[in-house]
Amino acid sequence: DKSKSGTEGFRPLSEREQIVVLNKIDVLSSEQQQELQERFKRASVQTRMISAVTGQGVRDLIFEVGRKILG
C-alpha cells in the first residue's frame, strides 16, 4: 500500500469495502455457524458463509460481488 500511496485513484486496502467470507461451513454444526457469525457481529464485521464443496452460499456471494463491482 505504501509504495502506491501517491498514485492517482489508489485507495489502501484498509479503506476499501470488504466482504468477509467464511468457507468450509459444511464441516460446522448449525450451532457452530451461529456462534462464529455472532463473534464477527460483536466485532462489527458482516460475514458471508459458504461451502465451496457443497456450493452453499456461493451463488449468492458471486451475485453480491458482481453488484458491488458493477454498481
Q: Please, could you describe this protein's structure?
A:
The protein has 71 residues and is mainly α. The chain has two helices and two strands. The chain has a two-stranded parallel ribbon. Helix 1 links the parallel strand 1 and strand 2 (47-49). The longest helix is centred in the middle third of the chain and has 13 residues, at 30-42. The chain is extended and about 45 Å long. The model has no long low-confidence stretch (mean pLDDT 89).
How is this fold's topology laid out?
Blueprint: E1 20-22, H1 30-42, E2 47-49, H2 58-70
Parallel strand pairs: 1-2
Question: What is shown here, in short?
Answer:
With 71 residues, the chain is mainly alpha-helical.
What fraction, in percent, of the residue positions are helical? 25-40%
- Rg to the nearest angstrom? 16 Å
Structural class: mainly alpha
Describe the sheet with the most strands.
2 strands, parallel
Quote the average pLDDT. Answer: 89
Number of helices: 2
Strand order of the largest sheet: 1-2
Low-confidence stretches: none
Shape: extended
Distance between the termini: 25 Å
Salient structural properties:
mainly alpha; 2 helices; 2 strands; 71 residues
